[in-house]
Structure formats: C-alpha cells, structure tokens
Amino acid sequence: MQLYGALILFMSLSTACGLRCFTCVATHPDSCTDTKSCAIIFDRCFSLRLSGLDVVTKGCQTSIACGGAIACCEGNLCNSAILTGPSVVLLLVSSAIITLFL
To answer: What pTM value is reported for the model?
Structure first.
C-alpha cells in the first residue's frame, strides 16, 4: 500500500512541475535530445514529420491542435524516438501495480 501512495505522490509532483517535451527540428528523430518545460497552456508533446522535406519537428502542443499529421502524446518526454529510462521504469511500475491490485 505504501508503494501505491508513493506512486500517487510521484505522479502528482511531476504534474505540478509542468510538462517536459523533447524539442527540435531535425532530419533524424534520434537526434532530438533538447528538452524544455512547456508553458501551462500546453498539455501534450508532439512530433511532426514533414515527409517531402525529410524533417522532424518536436515540441509542446495543446490537445486541440493534435490530429492529422501532428502526432501527440501525454506525459513527460513522451515524444522521443525511443523509450527513455524513466519511461521504462514507469511502465514496469504501473504494470506491477495493476498486477498486484487488480
């Protein structure tokens, strides 16, 4: 039960600190390593591939603008090309909680 409380505390603290997204304009998605804290009006991270120019753009976005060619996701640094360490840990912890409590 303490693990469940710690997870709730962790999730609420990360939400209070604001969303962080990868941000770049690059030819390869793997080269996006810069991150930034999004302004309060942005609630999603996005990735946009311009196929004619072979360019990838990543950054912060509102949920209203998502759709079509703009791929949006929720959560810190979710718009990376590969799963990052914290993403893998969060996935494993959430899977363990679901297995234990459901």
So the answer is: 0.61
| CA 74 – CA 55 distance, rounded (Å) | 22
Angle, CA 59 vertex, CA 58 and CA 64 arms, to 5°: 110
Tokens 């899977």 appear where? 95
20-34 pLDDT per residue, tens: 999 999 887 778 889
- The CA distance from 95 to 97, in Å, is 5
The Cα 5–Cα 62 span in angstroms is 30
Nearest to 69 by CA among 85, 56, 88: 56
pLDDT at 42 over 90: yes
| Separation CA 18–CA 40 (nearest Å) | 7
H/E element, 35? strand 35-37
Mean pLDDT of the chain: 76
| Beta carbons within 10 angstroms of residue 46's beta carbon | 23
